[in-house]
Amino acid sequence: MFGYGSLIWRPGFAFIRQMPALLRGVHRRLCVYSYRHRGTEAQPGLVFGLMPGGSCRGMAFEVADAAWGEVHAYLSEREMDRGVYREATRQIELADGDRVPSLAFLADTRHLQYAGKLAIAEQVRIVRAGVGESGANPEYVLETARKLHELSRIHISEPTRHAELHSAVFWLK
Question: What Pfam families does the record point to (predicted)?
Fold first, then answer.
C-alpha cells in the first residue's frame, strides 16, 4: 500500500513494516474536496490526490497476506466511500532500492469532488475553514507536511508547492 496524505502519519491498519517510497509518474496535489473527513458538503475541506506527471514521495506499507482483505475493506471505506479516488496498482521504489507493486489511490478528475488546480490563496481559504469527521483540515495539511519533511531527511525532497501552503496555513491560523 502506498500512502501519500494522512495514511503516512495515521494509517489506521496493521502492517508488517513501513518504508519511505517513491511513486513515479504522478504528483501529490490538494485537488479533492473533502465532504467527510476534513470538511462537509456545506463547507468542504481540501485533501490530496495523485495527478499525472512528476513523482510523489510517500510511505509504503507491507501488509500480511492474511490481513489484506480486512485492510483493503478498511481502506476502501476510508478512501473510496464517495468514489473520488480510483484504485491503481503501480510500481513503487522503496528507500532500500527495491521496486515492488503497490496499491495507490488516484484522484478521479471526472468526479464532482475533483477541485482541479486551485490557486494557493484559494487552497488556503478552503483548508482553513474545513473540519470533518477526522478533524480540522489545517491539521491534515500540517501533519502531512511535517511527515514529508521527516522523509526528506531520508530521501531527496520532492519539489512541491506544499511548503508554501504549509507556511500560509500555519501563519493564518
Answer: ChaC
Contact 165, 127 (CB under 8 A): yes
Cell matching residue 149 = 519533511
Query: How would you label 33-57 residue by residue, b for 16+ Cβ within 10 Å and e otherwise?
Result: bbbbbbbeeeebbbbbbbbeebebb
- The number of CA neighbours under 13 Å toward the Cβ of 44 is 15
Q: Which domain holds residue 160?
A: 2-172
Identify the CATH number of the domain in which residue 50 sits. 3.10.490.10
What does the pLDDT look like over 137-158, one tens digit per residue? 999 999 998 898 888 765 544 5
Contact 105, 80 (CB under 8 A): yes
Task: Please give the average per-residue pLDDT across 119-138, as a whole number.
Answer: 94
Distance CA 156, CA 67 (A): 32
Look at the chain and report how many structural domains it folds into: 1
